[in-house]
Specification:
Blueprint (H helix, E strand, L loop, with lengths): L4 H35 L7 H30 L1 H19 L5 H15 L2 H12 L5 H12 L1 H12 L2 H18 L7 H7 L9 H6 L1 H12 L2 H11 L2 H7 L8 H26 L2 H20 L6 H14 L3 H10 L6 H14 L1 H15 L1 H22 L14
Helix pairs in contact: 1-3, 1-4, 1-5, 1-6, 1-7, 1-8, 2-3, 2-4, 2-18, 3-4, 3-5, 3-8, 5-6, 5-17, 5-18, 6-14, 6-17, 7-14, 11-18, 11-20, 12-20, 14-15, 14-16, 15-16, 15-20, 17-18, 19-20
């Protein structure tokens, strides 16, 4: 049974603001890494190594947290995850504002990562289960579109205030949002599943027990592979790529990330609306995959690129990877109520984690063929895998989600 219109609007709003704070806290370390490391005494020669250490700790937290929160959401309810995850990462971010050494910094980012892992999957699952099947795309579209704007706020807060204050702002926003969540309601589908005592809920064993189910899950992960390569390599490593493209000045990764996330926000809106118009999420993801290929190849062939052109291309590449919410929605719609949150929570975090092997492959290719060709080959390979995986998944736009995996 769906909630009242007023309750659904409140639910979409708090899920959107939760993802907004989630994205802010997710990327704030990348933005304040250098000033924060300088302040706690990290030498210039250790900036990159220590930065990778802290970022990998946060990524490890995301991977572990995706499993933890997904199981909790399917066993005990989506609302419990929305409360528990935001409390954890908000307190962790406030704690980050007091760190004095790299090891403490890394450990707190690990804890923050665990908390951050639960927000999007639980929010998308709850919104999808609480809205009519022909309208739920609008809800998940709004969640993602508002959420990624948190990256833009993170950039400006880091410009206006020092790094410790930037962490305090993120944690404070989370605690304020926690109060807003007091009026949210549980998914009717989950409430119904809770009464079915014989049904396994949030079971990783159930997820991986059936070969067809495992393959379906892997295909869901694969359609998101190009997203984080574009953000994590093509944009984040823009200073190095710009140098290889003979840019007249050093390209700003910070500005590039901001423009990329602005593109992602608008892309999420367009992808959601296009899916409603076409009555298909698969067609939309295919169109956006082609946009990723076109804009990335354009970028990697832009010799003599100026900063202005780079920022425009970062925006366009961001627009292309703006099917993020559609990807998570597809994953949620492919599985029954007793596994839906587990899949929707683990999928985005595993896709983020897939950046590690992607960058390893990219690094090997750089040594063989140079940075530009390596980036192009890796991007095209990831896109080919994503498009193939997409063809193997069934259309889920108008699927009734009130069923169980057995």
């Amino acid at each position: 049974m769906k909630g009242s219109k007023k309750n659904v609007v409140l639910l979409v709003l708090v899920a959107s603001l939760g993802y907004f704070v989630d994205i802010y806290d997710l990327i704030i370390f990348s933005i304040v890494r250098i000033p924060s490391f300088k302040d706690i005494g990290v030498g210039e020669e250790l900036m990159r190594v220590k930065g990778e250490y802290v970022l990998n700790m946060q990524m490890g937290g995301l991977l572990l947290g995706g499993l933890i929160w997904g199981v909790i959401a399917d066993k005990f309810g989506r609302i419990k995850v929305l409360f528990g995850s935001i409390l954890m990462y908000s307190l962790a971010n406030i704690s980050n504002g007091f760190v004095q050494d790299v090891n403490t910094y890394a450990m707190i980012r690990f804890i923050a990562g665990i908390g951050l892992a639960g927000e999007l999957g639980a929010g998308i699952t709850l919104v999808s289960e609480s809205m009519p099947k022909d309208k739920r795309g609008y809800g998940t579209m709004f969640v993602a579109a508002v959420g990624v704007l948190g990256a833009i706020l993170a950039y400006y807060v880091s410009e206006w205030f020092d790094w410790r204050t930037a962490y305090f702002v993120g944690g404070g926003m989370g605690l304020l949002l926690l109060l807003m969540r007091m009026g949210t309601f549980e998914s009717g589908m989950f409430a119904e599943s809770a009464s079915q005592q014989h049904i396994q809920k949030g079971s990783l064993k159930l997820l991986f027990a059936d070969r067809k189910r495992v393959v379906r899950y892997i295909y869901c992960l694969c359609i998101g592979l190009p997203i984080w390569f574009v953000v994590g390599v093509l944009v984040t490593q823009s200073p190095e790529i710009g140098k290889a493209l003979q840019a007249p000045q050093v390209l700003s990764a910070g500005k590039g990330v901001m423009f990329t996330y602005l593109g992602i926000s608008l892309g999420d809106i367009f992808a959601g609306m296009l899916a409603q118009w076409l009555k298909s999420r698969r067609k939309v993801v295919f169109i956006f995959q082609l946009m990723i290929i076109a804009t990335s190849v354009w970028y990697l062939n832009s010799y003599g690129i100026t900063e202005t052109k780079f920022l425009w291309l970062a925006f366009l590449m961001g627009f292309g990877v703006g099917y993020w919410a559609t990807f998570v929605t597809i994953a949620a719609e492919q599985f029954g109520t007793n596994l839906r949150a587990t899949v929707a929570t683990t999928a985005p975090n595993f896709v983020r984690g897939a950046l590690i092997p992607s960058t390893m492959l990219y690094g090997l290719l750089v040594n063989q063929m140079g940075i530009i060709m390596a980036a192009m080959v890796t991007l095209l390979l990831l896109s080919a895998i994503a498009i193939f995986a997409l063809t193997q998944l069934k259309e889920s736009f108008d699927r009734d989600l009130n069923y169980f995996e057995e």
